[in-house]
């Protein structure tokens, strides 16, 4: 069960640029993953956690607001699996 979240340097910079409520929702997602595990948090409909296609195949996104989403990937470091949030961006609709 995956319970560790690592923010890349780029993701940390992105978080400083987004509105406060978006950063708070990501912080809540991270807290939930560390407490309940990624598999359980994926079931929460409010995050719209979904796999990506095309050039972003192998990555997943979660909605932080109507315009913002976080892109993350699941990686294995030795025997430890972790979630790495790749970026937080404004999604064009």
Task: Provide key terms for this protein.
93 residues, alpha+beta, YaeB-like fold, 5-stranded mixed beta sheet, 3 helices, 32% helix
Summarize the structure in words:
The chain has 3 helices and 5 strands, in the order βαααββββ. The chain is of the alpha+beta class and 93 residues long. The chain has one domain (5-90): YaeB-like fold (2-Layer Sandwich), CATH 3.30.2310.20. Strands 1-5-4-3-2 form a 5-stranded mixed sheet. β2 and β3 form a beta hairpin. The longest helix is centred in the N-terminal third of the chain and has 17 residues, at 20-36. It is globular and about 30 Å long.
Q: In terms of quaternary structure, what is this?
A: single chain
* Major sheet attributes: 5 strands, mixed
Shape: globular
Give the % helix: 25-40%
What value does the average pLDDT take? 86
Classification by helices and strands = alpha+beta
Report the sheet-strand fraction.
25-35%
**Helix and strand run:** EHHHEEEE
Question: Layout of SSEs?
Answer:
Elements: E1 5-7, H1 9-17, H2 20-36, H3 38-41, E2 50-51, E3 59-63, E4 68-77, E5 80-90
Parallel strand pairs: 1-5
Antiparallel strand pairs: 2-3, 3-4, 4-5
Question: In summary, what is this structure?
Answer:
The protein has helices at residues 9-17, 20-36, 38-41, and strands at residues 5-7, 50-51, 59-63, 68-77, 80-90. The protein has 93 residues and is an alpha+beta fold.
């Amino acid at each position: 069960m995956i319970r560790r979240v690592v923010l890349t340097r780029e993701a940390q910079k992105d978080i400083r640029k987004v509105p406060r409520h978006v950063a708070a929702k990501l912080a809540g997602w991270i807290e939930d993953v560390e407490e309940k595990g990624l598999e359980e948090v994926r079931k929460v409909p409010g995050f719209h956690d979904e796999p990506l296609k095309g050039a972003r195949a192998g990555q997943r996104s979660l909605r932080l607001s109507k315009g913002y989403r976080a892109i993350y990937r699941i990686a294995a470091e030795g025997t430890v699996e972790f979630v790495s949030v790749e970026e937080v961006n404004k999604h064009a609709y």
